[in-house]
Amino acid sequence: MSAPVVKHGAPDADAMHVPVLIIGAGACGLTAALRLASAGIDTVLIERDATPSGSTALSSGFIPAAGSAVQRAAGIDDDAARFAADIQAKAHGTAAPHLVAAYTGAAAPAMDLLARHGLAFEVLDGFLYPGHHARRMHALPERTGQALVAALERAATSAGAMLLTRALARELWVGEDGRITAVGCERPDGSVEVIGCDVLILACNGFGGNAAMVAEHLPAMRDAVYGGHVGNDGSAIGWGRQLGARLADLGGYQGHGSWATPQGALISWAVMMDGGVQINADGLRFHDETHGYSEAAVHVLAQPGGVAWNVFDDRTLALARGFPDFVAAEEGHALKTCADLPELAALIGCDADTLRRTLQAVSPGADDIHGRRFERGLQAPYHAVKVTGALFHTQGGLDIDAQCRVLDRDGQALPNLLAAGGAARGVSGNEVSGYLSGNGLLSAVAGGYIAAATAAASLGQTLSREF
């Protein structure tokens, strides 16, 4: 089976049946499963890979939330309203208001739930990500997406959720009343296993791995490196179209302007926020790096050869080495160190005098044509990483209401189909610059938390904040 299919009628009466079925065991699906299983509701997660990974494992694993117990314990003054304002400011007021309110309101209780199940979060210190006015990025001590998804899997399965791996969901069965009745999964031997359900949650992310859909909806990323998971094939959208669902914000996505090349590794944007700059093959800066790493992908791709150099000094290098992704990139020889400016110019392949003028403008009080304010200049030795722009994941998809119910083309909720995370529209508006750092994991974790409550309600059960 090569494409997502909707089948009409009833599956085999002998098929396994569970109250809640979730497609996708990333942050969204695992958060929903954890909450449901904790409340005693039988839940099965369908995962295409042998071990859950997806976009979550490829991320830095940092989840933004305002008002969590961890954030309060750190003495940080923040709340959901301020968080919502930051999201809308980055999206120029175009993010779906009902989802912004729902996700920022659910993020803190979701983080508290995860903490009660053994996920030992801390709030990142030392810098602010672009667009955030408070420290609200929650990270596990390992500071990796792999650690986050592994911890979520342990918590969900320990709570009683069932995880079915190596199961590629391709068929949705729908009854005459429009209710989803079952899901057909392709197994490694080519057989199809059908599982019936009362409620289905789509947590299978977006369409970043579908080249045709990227070319159609995200033309700026048509030729970009894809840094996301191959499983983001647009299945949720394919099913939604066949079911008459409404789509929204298909032009929204998270790019990243700091993808080490040719190593294929993420270089944390903390490097830029701490004082680093991006310099092209002509020895020039070409944008204000503090605006955000998502739109930086487009800026970098527009440079000669579609590449740039992240340039920084010893102080920033010490900060960067606190991120495992950077350490791995350094071990892969992505980091180059130059004793002085002529050596840096030779590395980049640019005119030394042009580069000298560029770096002279990177100093306190200097006039920056891009509008950035620098607290300090860069000091030799210089460190540099060659990067390109990449597509990480999409931010548009099935239109949903504040309860994560999928809406039809008339804006009415489909009977028992929910979606969250990358499978649904996010809170980044309809283009790349609307992405606020962490929006992807926000919609995954907060969306999974909300979808669980909606699923439980459809089964006649109310979930308290303790679940």
Could you tell me the number of beta strands? 21
Largest sheet: 9 strands, mixed
The percentage helix is 25-40%
Strand content range: 15-25%
Which of globular, elongated, flat, extended, rod-shaped describes the shape? elongated
Compile the SSE list and pairings.
Elements: E1 5-8, E2 16-23, H1 27-38, E3 43-46, H2 54-58, E4 63-64, H3 69-73, H4 80-90, H5 97-116, E5 122-123, E6 137-139, H6 145-159, E7 162-164, E8 168-174, E9 180-186, E10 192-202, H7 211-217, E11 225-226, H8 235-243, E12 247-248, E13 253-260, E14 265-266, H9 270-273, E15 277-279, H10 293-301, E16 307-312, H11 314-320, H12 324-331, E17 335-338, H13 341-348, H14 352-360, E18 382-394, E19 397-398, E20 405-407, E21 413-419, H15 439-458
Parallel strand pairs: 1-8, 2-3, 2-10, 3-7, 10-21, 11-18
Antiparallel strand pairs: 4-6, 5-6, 8-9, 9-10, 12-19, 13-14, 13-18, 15-16, 16-18, 17-18, 20-21
Q: What does it look like?
A:
The strands form four sheets. Strands 1, 2, 3, 7, 8, 9, 10, 20 and 21 form a nine-stranded mixed beta sheet that branches. Strands 11, 13, 14, 15, 16, 17 and 18 form a seven-stranded mixed beta sheet that branches. The protein contains 15 helices and 21 strands. With 467 residues, the protein is of the alpha/beta class. The protein has helices at 27-38, 54-58, 69-73, 80-90, 97-116, 145-159, 211-217, 235-243, 270-273, 293-301, 314-320, 324-331, 341-348, 352-360, 439-458; strands spanning 5-8, 16-23, 43-46, 63-64, 122-123, 137-139, 162-164, 168-174, 180-186, 192-202, 225-226, 247-248, 253-260, 265-266, 277-279, 307-312, 335-338, 382-394, 397-398, 405-407, 413-419. The protein is elongated, with a radius of gyration of 22 Å. 32% of the residues lie in helices and 22% in strands. Helix 4 (80-90) crosses helix 5 (97-116).
